[in-house]
């Protein structure tokens, strides 16, 4: 693309990330909860840097210029109130602050969060119904942010032939054919918006069959050492 030139950087160095966390877990036969309070900082993160060569050409490359700080909380829960129902939840919320160490003055900050959940239900005739979905908020970048996105999946499956065969059906985003996401880059010279449209609706059928079992047999070899003597 002559209007968007991209070039690598062979002088990049590995990022050095410093992270600290405090974890708490609660477990019983029906409920599991894990929480994680975390913070981290990186003084040489690899960041995509965009600049305008002229009124029509954008130059893209990567540099070790990031000063990134993150703090947040993540929570995971798994609840099984009955034998036929299981529910799980995974959430994350945090604050990100990004700046540079090269004197360019680039800076961005903001909150981000995500939430995903799912449920498995055992219906009559041993049919398992699954419902999963999630939402991810816009992600902060050094010169802008990425668009938010979400998904949801419905699926059903059942074991057959003494659990040797499993047949399943799934539908991903069945009520929405396409989705558009807009990412933007903001500098002192320009603002660039990039909108992409994706096909997100899909349907599928799966069939698996197990032909046998692998059994690991450990053979013990008995060895008898005879220390001989004479009569």
How would you portray this structure in words?
The protein is mainly beta and 231 residues long. 0% of the residues lie in helices and 67% in strands. The protein contains no helices and 14 strands. It has strands spanning 4-6, 17-27, 31-52, 58-82, 85-100, 107-123, 127-136, 140-141, 144-145, 149-160, 165-172, 178-186, 191-199, 202-209. The strands form 2 sheets. Strands 1, 2, 3, 4, 5, 6, 7, 10, 11 and 14 form a 10-stranded mixed beta sheet that branches. The chain has a 4-stranded antiparallel beta sheet with strand order 8-9-12-13, with no helix packed on it. Strand 6 and strand 7 form a beta hairpin. The radius of gyration is 27 Å and the shape is extended. It starts with a strand and ends in a 22-residue tail after the last strand. Residues 216-231 have low confidence and may be disordered.
Entry keywords:
231 residues; mainly beta; ten-stranded mixed sheet; four-stranded antiparallel sheet; 14 strands; disordered C terminus
